[in-house]
Amino acid sequence: MTHSVPEPASAGASLTVSLAIQRGAFHLDVAFEAPPGITILFGPSGSGKSTVLAAIAGLLRPDRGRVALGTDVWLDSTQRIDRPVHLRRVAFVFQSLALFPHMSAVGNVVYGMDRTLAREVQRTKARELLARFHVAHLENRRPSTYSGGEAQRVALARAFAMAPRVVLLDEPFSAMDRDLRESLCADVRASASELGVPFIHVTHHRQEVRLLADRVIYIDNGRRVAGSDEPYVDMWGSGS
């Protein structure tokens, strides 16, 4: 069976990012382009990777910067453009997930959908997305009954329910064991191929880089220290 995924309005556009942020002694200054596919922000904890995601989503205002999806400018400090979070239509998946504990899996997924859709259409699409992420059996169950991997899959289904223009993944698999991480990475890769939008995935796990990356940007101490806009080539072989 083929399970449909909502078609985003901006498939094919690249995300361009240029950010300068000063917070106390920490100074972040990075610039990169993320075309459709998976761009990994790789580097040690505290290097500024999650800060970059927050600024892209509109959750954090940089001191200076520009963020644009194709010709659609979300942020431009020189032109005083700062589009609010809900108008950027960014799917953001955290390690903490933030599922609504009082809602079933279907309810959590429906929450992210277009409110103009008929209720039964919403529920049908929610079931399709849960099936896409191999958790159809959780349809009527609440998050307190999920395993860690099940909760992550429901969170991914909810993120994609909004037909996102950009997907941001902030170390969502860091607490998972190796086998589960590989399985979830396979699901994300398949979804990235279907959606055709930029995915930006933050990690410090080399295994995730090998499994997911189309491109890698290396960040350390707030700076882009390496990385290429060319397709990623695995430099670590089969080791962890």
Automatic annotation (TrEMBL):
Residues 12-235 form the ABC transporter domain. GO terms for molecular function: ATP binding. Keywords: ATP-binding, Nucleotide-binding, Transport. It comes from the Bacteria. PANTHER family: SPERMIDINE/PUTRESCINE IMPORT ATP-BINDING PROTEIN POTA, SPERMIDINE_PUTRESCINE IMPORT ATP-BINDING PROTEIN POTA. This is ATP-binding cassette domain-containing protein. It comes from Pendulispora albinea.
